[in-house]
Amino acid sequence: MSLIVILTGAGISAESGVESFRDEGGIWSRYDYREVATPEGFAANPTLVHEFYNDRRAQMQTVGPNAAHFALARLEQEFDGEVLTITQNIDDLHERAGTKNLVHMHGELGKALCVRCNTRLAWKDQLSMFDHCPNCGHTGCLRPDVVWFGESPYHMDIIEEALARASLYLSIGTSGNVYPAAMFVEEAARSGAHTVELNLEPSEISHQFNRTIKGPATEIVPRFVD
Ligand SMILES: CC(C)NC(=O)[C@H](Cc1c[nH]c2ccccc12)NC(=O)[C@H](CCCC/N=C(/NCCC(=O)O)S[C@H]1O[C@H](COP(=O)(O)OP(=O)(O)OC[C@H]2O[C@@H](n3cnc4c(N)ncnc43)[C@H](O)[C@@H]2O)[C@@H](O)[C@H]1O)NC(=O)OCc1ccccc1
Fold first, then answer.
1. What keywords are annotated for this sequence in UniProt (predicted)?
2. Atom 61 of ligand 1: nearest residue by CA position
């Protein structure tokens, strides 16, 4: 059975007020990703890393899904069971817009992971080295449940299986700088999928798509979906 596979990045949440990484004044222009988004950075300075994610987690309480998130939730409803949304984003705006068949390949801000017993916990507030794991009782063993550079993305089995039977592949609001996500268009094309990029600016991989649509996600995604 054919499948619509959608990949989203920071650009889909930009108009909700969630910063992107590489755009003008983006997150990586203020932080060195080696210090805050690598296991080595966390080992060297866990307090700095907790502060970085605590600020982004706090911001989640102040933003909401936009017209692009809602359009994708409508698309999923319309094509019941034939749509998979893969997001690189760690925010919860897709869920809050109503998308159900969703995988967070780079983790979630709203979860904490115990590095000792591998338990995952819903975590809404500040996280620090002084928190203890309710499962194994150890302290100083909780980290943000996000995938850092050099770590394996989550749900790659579900993702590979979906790309192998994709008939339509949409890439929305991502710059195509980070792997393996930037390779998904090639895999979808190999499965015979029609590939469309929806982005404010051309990305590193625009040339690999059958079609590119330029503009703000809140305008071009509802227009493409409805
Ligand atoms: C920098 C890069 C060169 N490095 C990598 O890719 C590395 C290393 C690597 C692996 N393979 C390679 C091959 C070649 C070279 C390097 C590598 N990859 C890894 O380490 C990955 C893990 C990477 C995950 C890192 N964690 C993130 N995030 C979580 C944390 C956090 O969020 O803090 S990455 C982070 O940046 C990524 C890219 O950001 P974008 O979402 O694209 O945002 P960006 O700001 O860049 O762009 C925004 C775009 O939106 C557009 N836009 C802006 N506003 C709007 C708007 N309003 N409307 C529409 N569009 C808009 C803009 O024009 C722009 O194009 C996202 O994935 C995001 O999650 N792990 C791995 O490969 O493990 C092995 C493996 C592989 C396969 C299978 C098993 C194991």
1. Cytoplasm, Metal-binding, NAD, Transferase, Zinc
2. 11
SS3 (DSSP) at 211:
strand
Both tokens assigned to 54: 């605590």
Q: Nearest 5°: CA angle at 178, between 82 and 55?
A: 95
Q: Which of 54, 179, 221 to mutate to test the pocket of ligand 1 (most atoms within 8 A of CB)?
A: 179
ipTM of the complex: 0.95
Stated pTM of the model: 0.96
Angle, alpha carbons 25-20-98 (nearest 5°): 150
Q: Any idea of the CA torsion for 36, 40, 46, 49, to the nearest 10 degrees?
A: 10
List the 211-214 sheet strands across, edge first: 102-104, 83-87, 3-8, 166-172, 194-199, 211-214
48 to 41, 43, 216: CA distances (angstroms): 9, 10, 33
Per the annotation, the verdict on 106 as an active-site residue is: yes
CA-wise closest residue to 129 among 140, 137, 113: 140
Q: How many CB atoms lie within 10 A of CB 164?
A: 14
Query: Over the stretch 20-59, which tens digit does the pLDDT of each residue have?
Result: 888 778 898 899 999 999 999 999 999 999 999 999 999 9
Domains in the chain with CATH codes: 1-18+65-106+153-226 (3.40.50.1220), 26-62+108-146 (3.30.1600.10)
pLDDT single digits (tens) 148-206: 999 999 999 999 999 999 999 999 999 999 999 999 999 999 999 999 999 999 999 99
Ligand 1 pocket check for 13: Cβ under 6 Å = no
